[in-house]
Structure formats: C-alpha cells, structure tokens
Design a protein that fits this description.
The structure is a homotetramer.
Chain A lengths: L35 E2 L8 H7 L2 H26 L4 E2 L6 H16 L8 E2 L2 H30 L5 E3 L3 E6 L2 E10 L5 E15 L5 E7 L6 E4 L3 E7 L11 H6 L3 E10 L4 E10 L3 E3 L1 E3 L3 E3 L5 E3 L7 E3 L3
Parallel strand pairs in A: 5-13
Antiparallel strand pairs in A: 2-3, 4-6, 5-6, 6-10, 7-8, 7-9, 7-11, 11-12, 14-17, 15-16
Chain lengths: 312, 312, 312, 312
C-alpha cells in the first residue's frame, strides 16, 4: 500500500507532464532523461553527436573517414587508369590500387612528395579536388576539436548512496559530492527533487513531484566536498517513511547542480538520480578531507561515498 | 466591423513602434521580422551571412572561391609565361592554362608535388604569395566552420495550427511544440503575443499588441512535448471572438521561446508566428507520446501537429 | 555663470571618481573612455589588439610577419651556405638569397615542391623547425581569425545630433538610433547619463553626473529605428536650460545601449557620447521608415540623423 | 588572547565548511584556493592544464611533442630499414636515423619535398599515418591556441598592502586596484570577506567568516583606479582591533571581484588575499592618476600600491 504524502506536489512546471504510475526511472544515473525523441532528420544532431561522443570513438571515426576518403579516391584513380600518373608503373590491380592509394593519401594530407604526380587532365582535376577536400576536412576537424575542448562541462562526483543518518536530534537524508575538475566552480546551487507514485483524489495512481528543502543549497566556492542534507522533520514529504514505503512508491531523487566554471566562465550543469534502492539507513559519511604534509587540506575524491554504520 | 478589445494593449515597449493598420504579417513563419533594413556597408554582415546560410550554399561558395582563386593565379602565371616554370612544356594557350591551373592548385592547397615548380623570380614570388593566401583562406574557413558548428540554435518544431478546444468547462486556444534536437533545453520559457487591428479613440485604425496569459509559461526540462494553453475566459482579450473577428482584424500570434541549451550552455531563442487563417476551431491534439518496447516514453516529433475534431 | 541643478547627482557608483571641473570629454564619440592606462607589460594586450585592429591592418600585419619570417630563415640558410641545399646553384649573394628565400617560403607554407631540398644536417634541422613554425603560425592565425569573427559586437548607428523638439505640450531632448547589422538585437536597454560642471556647497567647481529619465528605455525587438526621448519637464535636471547653459557647463550626454545579439546569443554593448555642441534646438526627426514595393517596412539607416526645423 | 567579535559570522554558505583553527591561509595571493583535490583520472584536467599553463611552457610542450613524434616515427622507419625509401643511401645507424628523422619531419609537417619518399608498402602506410597524425595534431593545436586566446581573464592589479587610514573623522581599512588590461571592465562588483580565528560558545577555536561592508561595492565603468574602503566604525567586526589582534587571530581578507569584459562580453572573476602582515597602519594612498600632455587623465598602474605615512 502506498503511503500518502500531505504536502502539495509541484505542478507540471517541471516539464515531465502528467505521467501515470510507472516503475521506470525518469532520469538515468548520468543525469540524462529517460526519454526518446524522434528527430526530423538524422543529420540535425551531427554536431551534438560529434562533440559528445567519447574521445576514442571520435578519433576512430576521424581515422575511418580519412581511410574511407583515401580509398574512394584511390578507386577513382584506378578507374581512370594508373597511366594517368607519373611515377606509377602499371601492374596487377592490387599493385595499382596500392600505388593509387598512396598517391591519394599524399594528396589528401597535402604532403605531396611528388614521386607520384598526376600527368593527365582528369587525374589533375581529381587530385586538385582531393587536396581541397583534405584541407576542408581538417578545417572541420579543427572546429570539432575546439568544440569538444571548450564544451562547458562539470565533472561532479556523487556518493553512490543516499544515507539516512541521525541529525540534530532527528534524522536527515543526505548525499555528498565533490568537484573532480581542477577548474573551480563558484556560486554553485543544488536542488533536490523527489518523484514518487501517489494516488489521486479519484484513486488514480500517478507520479507526483516534490521539491525537498535542503540545509545549504548554495555555496560561493565549491572547492571542498559538499554534503547536501534534507532533514526528515514534519515539514518533509518523506516524514515517517520507511524503506518499504520508498520502494513501493518507486521513489526517485533527482539532483540538479549548477555553477560557474572559472576557466571558461560559463554556467555548467550536472544532474544525478538516486532510486529507493540506493538509500542506506543508519549510516554516516566518513571524513573525506585530510591534511597533506604541508598542512593544506586535501580532498580524497575517491572516498566521497565511504560511510560507516551507526546505531538507529 | 472590428470587434473591440477592452483590455489595455501593451505600450510601445515591444519595439514595433506605432504602426498603422496593415494586413502584412509582422513576423515571418520562421520567426524573422518582416522588416528590411538598409546597411551602411554590405560587408558589415559578411560573417552573419556566412554562418547563417544553408550548408550546401556554404560549401558551394567555398568551392567557387577555391576555383576562382586557382583560375586567377593560373591566368597570372600564363601572363608571366609558362617558361617561368620547370616541368611545363610550352604549347597552345589551353594547354598552358591547364598546366598553370594545376600548378596553381598544387600551390594553393600546399600539396606541392614538385613535378611543376617555379623557376624564375616572378613565378617564385607569385607562387609564394599564392601558398600564403591558400593557408590564410583555410585558416579563415576553419574559423567559419567552427562559427557555424557552435552557433547556438534551438530547433523547436511547432504544430502548424492553433486549436480552439474545450478546456476546463470553457474554451482555450493552444498550440504544441517539441524540441527536435538531441541537446536538452532547460529552464525554458514561452511568451505569446497577440497583434490585431483596433480603432483608436479618434477612430484611427492601428495595430495593437496584447500579451496573452498562458497556463504554464516556464518549465524546468523541455524533454517531452509541451502544449501551450491560453484560456479564452473573460480576462482574455480574445473572449467572445469568432473566426471572422480574427480574420477581419488580421490577428497574428507571435510565440517567443527561450531556454538554455545544455551542450554549449547558452541561451537560445526561437520564434514562431500564427495567422488567423492557422486557427482550427473545435479540435484537440492527439497524443504525441507513446511507449517504446522497453517502456521508455517516446516523443513522435513528426506527429506534433496532429489533431482530431471535437464537438463544439 | 553656471546654472544650478537641484536634482540629486549620482554618487561615485559610475566609476569616474571625483573629477574636478574639466572641458575634456569623458567619453569619445566611439564610446571608448577618454582615459589612458599604463600597462604592466605591452604583451598583456596582444590578443586584445589583434582582434580589435581594423581588418586591413590585421592582414598587413600577417603578411609582414610571413615575409619577415621568410626573410629571417633565408638569411640563416645563406649563412649556412647554399651548398647545403640540393637544387641551388651557388652564385652571387643576391642570387643565393633569392633561392634561399624561395626555399624558405616553400618550407614555411609546407608547399615543399622539392626542386630545392635540404641536403645537410644543419639545413635539414632548420628546415624542419621552419615548417613546424609555419604550421604553428597558421594555427595561431586560425584562432585569431575566429576570435575576430566571433567577437560580439553591436553596430548601432546614432543620429549625429540631439534634438530639442516640442513634445506632449512641452519639450523633450531626443536622439535616434538603428541597428545596422543583419543580426537581430533583442531585449535591448538604453541608459542616458548627463555629466555637467556644477559648483559644490563650498563653491568648488566639479563634474556631476545625472541619470536622465527616458520614455521607453527597454524594448523587446530592436528591428526598427528607436527614438530615445527625455522630457524636459520639471523633474528633469535640464529643466529651463538654454544652449548657453549647456555650453558653459561643458554638458556631455553618455548613451549606453545593451542587448542580446541573436546570432551568437551574447550580450553586446554600444556607447555613444554627445556634447553640448551637438544639440539642435527646435528641430524634429524626419521619418526613417518607408514601405518597400511589397508593403514591407524598410528602415533607411543612412537617414537616421535627418531632421527638419520647427517653430519654437 | 583572541579578541571577540560580536557580529554574526556568515554560515557555511561560503563553501569552506567547518574548519578548525588554522594558521594556513585559505586563499593564495593569486586568488586560488589553498586546497588540494585528488582527481579521478589525470587526463580529466588535460584541457584545463593546457590552456592555463604559461605560454613559454605551452610552446616548449608543443615543440617537445613535435620532436618526440618525429623521433618515434624515425625510429620506426629505421626498424623497417631505410631501403624502403627512395633517396636514402643506406649507411651507419646514425646516418640512417638522421635521414629517417628528416623524412619523418617532412611528413609530419606535410612539407613533403620529395627528395626522400616512401618506396614500399610498409613505409607508405606509416608515412600516410604520420601525415594524418601531423594534421590532426595541428588541428588540435589550433583549438588549444584559440582556447588560450579567448579564455576570459581579468588582469586586475591590487595594491600590496591594506592601509588603515583616517577616514571621515574615524578610520577605515582600504586597498586600491586597477584594471591592467586594455579591454574595459563594466558593471564591476567587489566583495570583501574576513576570516579570523574565534572561540566557539564551548570555547573551541575555529575559523569564522564575515562579510565586510564596503562604501562603493559596484561601479559601472572600471576604467580608472578604484579604492575599496571598509569603515572601521562600530558596525564593523574589526572595530577596535589592533595589529596584534589581527595577527593573533590569523586574520585573512579575501577580495572577490567580478565584472564584464567588453571585448568578449563575458563575466570575469579575480580574487586576491591579504594577511594580517599586509596591513599598514596610519598610511594613505598617494594619487595614481595624473594628466597627460593633452589633458587626458592617465592611470599609473605601477604606482597602485604607493602610500605615505600619516599621523595617527
């Protein structure tokens, strides 16, 4: 049976619209929304894909394009006939193709050693076009690389768990996070939303949204670790909830962080989502800051989620 | 006869100034203003044109510039005489020009095979300048390409029609929109302005502007579809209007959307305009979201404007 | 004798500090401040200079750097001796230098025809370094070109004169402006500051600052022309002033415009300054908007300052 | 003994958390925080490091990468055997390596003279890959250079000392600063925080934070010098403090400046920190502005910290 929340839920101003009861999470753990959208044209999102794909994938894609363009032009040169080129001795197809491929590569990269060179009208025209394409492609890669470098991103590491710990005589639910980038985050704000299944007045099951009060929701400098605390007092929608209540309501906490990155002075956002299964009861975080040899505080990023059990 | 609106119109703070009665639309359907401005110098808008023209036009322009520069230098080399070059056998003009053109191309792209090379002072000087220009041009193209890639744009798809539908016991005018880009839009706001011809106190016909109240004018996450609803109650300037009233007043709705694009963290704007002819009476939107195989919601962007007739 | 203003002047929150009486203008007509600042190191402002200098100067600077680097390396190759190169026949210095210069140019641009090539250890090392430098330089030029292209700028054209015209039964001081760029400006705001010499309580002459009320100080779309109007009523610091009062007080109006440029979605600023000598009494602006053939309004940017005399 | 402050300290909204008594400064003199953070992966901060390292270090790193890649490929070519190349006469290892190194350099920079060229399958494949890598590397350097150029930075020069000077019948603590960049800063704000050791209610020593009131904390144009003044009246936490009180409490002043840079229209931040040892009692700043020949005010940036002693 679902436990009833008396606080007023948020209206549809979040943008999730009216959603029936669901056991699907609304937000993935990386902060993306668990929604699919059809796109009008697949190429509309080309730039988005190229700047957000992993680096290894990006480099492989570039390499593949380079080899692909090389090969296409090599085939074209073979079709024209290798006798159109100085420096290629005609021979079997594989030999001709390899020579054409190397000429093609020297043209595409504009290295142009010249021991092979175009000798006829057609070969000259295609070689001219290939070197033009080569430059254009690398100009495009320049732009994409800068787009990837300069994309404003926050790299915030969140504790894996929400802890329910004794707090100021009562209890609080909390998580901890740290900025894992060298670039400072300033004027950082955090919001914590709860979504949980509830019954409507007409007994219809649907997902409701609640903004949770948090103790310190904005700090000037996010250079240390930051523990976000929501007190489970009688003003909290979760007052009196048990782990079973959370699980049966498919509770999900959405965490929204925004701040200003100091290197490029742009606003950055980070999101995270916790499910009912991520809550640990009667536990508290262990210290994540120690002093290095010279007395400077040091934040041990990898320990951000470490906690110990406490008595209930 | 024009129907009279009792609500106070907006003052000239929109920036359209005092405009007499007109049947011209103020905003084009793509959100640009239906205004011409003289420019002091045509080159003042070069960058604007180069980053906003369609991709196909952009590439053709680059190709044309490349061929144009190539040809110019080839003609120059012909004027100097092909005897100034190693590797060109002098011959009829067309032959000489083609050879000069290929040399020019190899120089402009810096491929420089070397089977043709400048052999005199003059040819060396021009070739040196051409290769310099070539690099400069491709540096410029790099910059333009990045400018095009990174230009903050929203790609919001609007329903083709405004619908007048039964709503909460009364009626409302509404449209629907969806973000057709993979990049999330957050903290998105929408405004809806009405412009319609009205008679002044001294019976002069002129265009008046009204801001229309909308139910949910700001959402945190625009990851689903969004229906913008203006209730036609007695606080609405359009209360009691018929289709004939709208048409005779040359009614136009201007829709202004702004939000933050998550990939480059910049504010983006989108505008749209509906005319009286775009209003469909007694209709409501069909659902645009279904569930994909794994239970995730899926937004069918192409169906954003689909509606069904309802009884009046 | 100075006319006394009764309104409270602005405090030092403008940043001009306490300045004695002066006949110097505070702001130049292009909106820059009429102040000199020493810099710690001249190179601190290199990027600023390179992206703000006129295009013609920028291109000449690049050309000069290219010729300069070319020449330096050519001299170096001459010092090594041209016998270190294949393809150069040793001869008199000028001949050697020219050959070395052409080799240098082919290396710097990486065109590398190869009819001249380095043949010794030293020549190879320097040629390798030169081609590295060449690529680095053009990478830098790419960055600078993009910096120039994408620099957020407003190109607002202001009327040359402030007009004092009859207005709503009284009088107003006004100027007119238009956005001369194709890119739309949205949410544009304007401020108008007056600075004028006044006597302190202890009869000391000093410059005071006043913010002038303007009728419409913010518009949503700056796609037409915009007339900024300050009414000369009894709440105006300038109430009852004559041209002689303005001149003897060395009155200066500073105009500050800010808005969002739609192409790159960045805030842009523009400033302008009018002196007492720029005020025309009893004049009003002639219309600057007409209708083009198809009925669209057209803004005649060049006519922004055109006015006619009216009776006092 | 610590002097007690009666004003309410700031809560933990600054982000430094609860820190015990410490003699370590919280902020370094360059405005960075005196904190270490572990990073999950060293490469996460690559871009940050590459755009923030000094220029000389950046260029040396690029040069080293270039020589390193050159050398790696040269070794590879030696392993293949120099008989795989036209134009290299096989000889002792050092000779072969040098020839291979020069070929490698000509390939990486795409200069490709062609007096050495790949003659076998394997040498062709590696040369093709090397020229591809070369272009990719220079595309990346283009992006990094632009990232460095365009990084929004403020270059504000602060006086070395805080002065305690007679002020409006009482006393004030003050410092002075100037914008040392040609680019104007507009809408500039400054905040001044004090951190000092205090005893808790339970006699525990800990660091407390106070926001200090300053006379003019925001100016429209930061084109002159700016003196930031905190009056030591009875509303100041520092009222009645002596130099000994400051030193024994390990007082530190953190100065936070933010403004909008006019060239790239971005918000920039600058921070500075003063220790108790930096305070000079009974001193006042000497003028830093004089008039240049033509009557224009001139700010002598290097004199920003110059002061004279005054009687107590």
């Amino acid at each position: 049976m679902l436990r009833k929340i008396r606080s007023k839920p948020l209206d549809s101003e979040l943008g999730f619209g009216k959603t029936g009861s669901t056991s699907n999470r609304l937000m993935n753990i990386d902060g993306s929304f668990n929604v699919e959208r059809d796109y009008l044209n697949w190429w509309d999102n080309t730039y988005h894909r190229l700047v957000t794909m992993p680096w290894i994938q990006f480099f492989l894609l570039i390499l593949a394009s380079f080899v692909g363009m090389n090969t296409l032009f090599a085939l074209l040169y073979c079709m024209l006939g290798v006798h159109n080129f100085n420096g290629i001795e005609p021979g079997p197809f594989v030999h001709n193709f390899m020579q054409a491929y190397f000429f093609s590569s020297q043209t595409l990269t504009t290295v142009g050693y010249g021991h092979i060179s175009p000798a006829s009208l057609s070969s000259n025209i295609f070689a001219s076009f290939e070197s033009f394409l080569g430059l254009l492609t690398f100009a495009m890669i320049s732009g994409l690389l800068y787009g990837r470098f300069s994309r404003p991103t926050a790299k915030i590491v969140f504790s894996e768990n929400l802890l329910v710990a004794p707090y100021k005589g009562g209890r609080a639910i909390m998580f901890r996070m740290v900025n894992a980038q060298k670039s400072e985050l300033i004027e950082t704000e955090v919001q914590m939303l709860l979504t949980i299944n509830q019954r409507d007045d007409n007994d219809q099951l649907s997902r409701k949204f609640y903004a949770l009060d948090i103790e310190i929701s904005k700090i000037s400098f996010f250079s240390m670790s930051w523990t976000i605390v929501h007190e489970l007092n009688d003003r909290s929608p979760l007052f009196g909830f048990t782990q079973e209540d959370l699980v049966s309501g498919h509770a999900e906490w959405m965490v929204l962080v925004k701040g200003t990155d100091e290197v490029n002075q742009q606003m950055v956002h980070s999101r995270h989502s916790y499910l009912a299964e991520d809550v640990v009861w009667n536990a508290r975080f262990l210290p994540v800051i120690d002093r290095s040899g010279n007395g400077r505080p040091r934040v041990k990023t990898r320990h951000i989620g470490i906690y110990e059990r406490v008595e209930a």
